[in-house]
Write a structure and sequence with these properties.
two-stranded antiparallel ribbon, disordered N terminus, disordered C terminus
């Protein structure tokens, strides 16, 4: 690809038309979406209604927003809104919350008229309404508790949509085997559990991941023919993510900015910013972020508990110094990380210890491998991802503790966790052990089989906790009359989840065997910076890496 101005970072005219390829490969996308959605749906039915963190408040919020009531009336119990009685009664079926030995068969009799409009409180009354306006739609159709399951299913559909988009984008990258396999570590049991409940946390996490993967593909594996499609995914993910929760714009900003550091020089970045798809991307993301900011500022949702303590729950630590908040969260990173892997129910049902150990081992291997193997700019980006994961939660808690107390939960860091795992794996790329066929096959089998086994154990133990209690009999759980059973029975969901995990492991092993094809090595030449020499990371001078060329 010679050029009289080689190395100047100028943009070459379109000499030839690059072969057109799908921006998002359809087969990996739909297969990943189907498998992830099926796994999430299993959690929908294996988890009793109202058995995820603050789910009744989110259920009431969704049903009120979809009926046009965006805020409600403030009260000491939360914002009061009007919803169908069966929605309001979701607060009454939490007899098992905070007590793992109590089964989910609450002594509760549904009302004779579940469709009657009544008032109900929600502690999520000031949350951004976008997620709730979509998820609440089934409550307009269903007139009984089946509407809650339908709301969960719709939430899972949206959550897994963005996870599948992220997966499909990674599948278009030239060095894709390591990050594709890393999805087995990124998609934790906690992510599937939250995706199968009425709660914006999982959608926030996967939408942020889609943004991050789109930016990684643009910088690590530049391809002009796929730029528009990647930009569309980044736009959609960013608009949805920034409007998910109050802190979401912070995670999205990191997902957008950190990958740009992989660009080697100013000329490459300027060339990228001149592309029409990128200009539209910036405009749409800016509009979505402004809309999210206007809601947050207009409702004062982030600081309402500080300024109006009579309208919010009280948390320990109010009045403490920011240093105390920072220290508690930073030092407690490992403990809080349990909420990233498996802390189910109302944070009262941890995954088995072996599951947590296996995930910790996998996470540690990825992080240590990255900081040992990577060099120069990629190492800098890796350290930035690690620092963001460790420091952002502590800084947020430090800013909040004096007026609002200790509010941080591990699951709040899911967006940065997903970006950390997939990002480090993408930076590792085709390292030496990946090019060794036998070593790579063994690693892939260990990861896929280990993740599938741990997923099943977490699912089974959580279902057992609600069926017979954490101290209940396994014999009663499997062969007797459990106090609570999910719709269709215990065996149905255990068997279905096992089959889905076997399928997911097989598919993951299949896609992780993909290596670079000849087509992947063809660089589109329409309106891209051109250099006479394409340096490798090992031979490039400081400040110039392959990620900075070919855009």
């Amino acid at each position: 690809m010679g050029n009289p101005q080689a190395g100047s970072g100028t943009v070459a005219p379109a000499a030839t038309q690059a072969p057109r390829r799908r921006s998002i490969p359809l087969k990996p996308f739909f297969v990943a979406w189907a498998v992830l959605f099926a796994l999430t749906t299993a959690w929908v039915f294996a988890t009793p209604p109202s058995a995820s963190p603050d789910e009744p408040a989110h259920i009431v919020r969704a049903a009120s927003v979809v009926r046009g009531e965006l805020v409600g009336t403030p009260s000491p119990a939360g914002h009061i809104v009007t919803v169908p009685r069966y929605i309001a009664e979701s607060h009454a079926v939490t007899c098992f919350a905070f007590n793992p030995t109590v089964t989910a068969n609450c002594a509760y009799t549904p009302s004779a008229d579940p469709w009657e409009s009544v008032e109900a409180p929600t502690t999520a009354g000031l949350y951004n309404p976008l997620y709730y306006a979509v998820v609440g739609l089934p409550s307009l159709v269903f007139h009984d508790a089946s509407g809650i399951y339908a709301m969960r299913i719709l939430s899972g559909l949206l959550t897994t949509l963005f996870a599948a988009l992220a997966f499909a984008i990674v599948a278009t990258m030239r060095n894709r085997r390591v990050p594709l396999l890393a999805f087995a570590v990124a998609v934790t049991p906690m992510l599937l559990f939250l995706g199968g409940s009425v709660n914006p946390s999982a959608l926030e996490a996967t939408a942020t991941l889609a943004v991050f993967c789109g930016m990684l593909a643009i910088t690590l594996s530049p391809d002009a023919s796929r730029l528009t499609g990647r930009a569309v995914v980044v736009m959609a993910g960013a608009v949805v993510a920034v409007n998910a929760r109050g802190l979401s714009p912070l995670w999205v900003a990191l997902a957008l900015v950190v990958p740009l550091l992989l660009l080697a020089d100013r000329d490459a970045l300027v060339a990228l910013l001149k592309r029409r798809a990128v200009i539209v991307l910036i405009a749409v993301v800016a509009a979505g972020t402004i809309a999210a900011g206007l809601w947050t500022v207009g409702t004062n949702s982030l600081a309402n508990a500080i300024e109006h303590p009579d309208q919010a729950l009280s948390f320990p630590g109010i009045g403490a110094s920011p240093l105390v908040g920072f220290q508690k969260v930073f030092i407690g990173t490992v403990g809080y990380s349990q909420g990233l892997v498996g802390l189910f129910g109302w944070l009262d049902t941890p995954a088995p210890d072996v599951v947590l150990y296996l995930w910790g081992l996998a996470i540690g291997a990825i992080v240590v491998g990255a900081v040992v193997v990577l060099r120069r700019r990629r190492l800098l980006v890796a350290w930035l991802l690690v620092a963001a994961f460790l420091l952002c939660p502590a800084l947020v808690q430090a800013a909040y503790i004096h007026g609002g107390g200790m509010i941080w939960q591990g699951r709040y860091n899911l967006p940065l966790f997903l970006c950390l795992i997939v990002g480090l794996a993408a930076l590792l790329g085709e390292t030496a052990f990946v090019r060794a066929p036998y070593a790579w096959r063994r690693i892939a089998v260990i990861v896929a089989v280990g993740a599938a086994g741990a997923q099943f154990w977490a699912f089974e133990s959580t279902l057992r906790r609600y069926a017979v209690g954490s101290n209940g009999s396994m014999r009663t759980y499997l062969f007797g009359q459990s106090a609570w059973t999910p719709p269709g029975g215990t065996w149905l969901w255990l068997a279905l989840f096992a089959v889905l995990l076997v399928l997911a492991a097989a598919l993951l092993l299949h896609v992780s065997a993909w290596s670079r094809s000849e087509e992947d090595d063809v660089e589109p030449v329409d309106a891209v910076p051109v250099n006479a020499v394409q340096p490798t990371e090992e031979t490039a001078p400081a400040g110039l890496t392959p990620a900075g060329t070919g855009l």
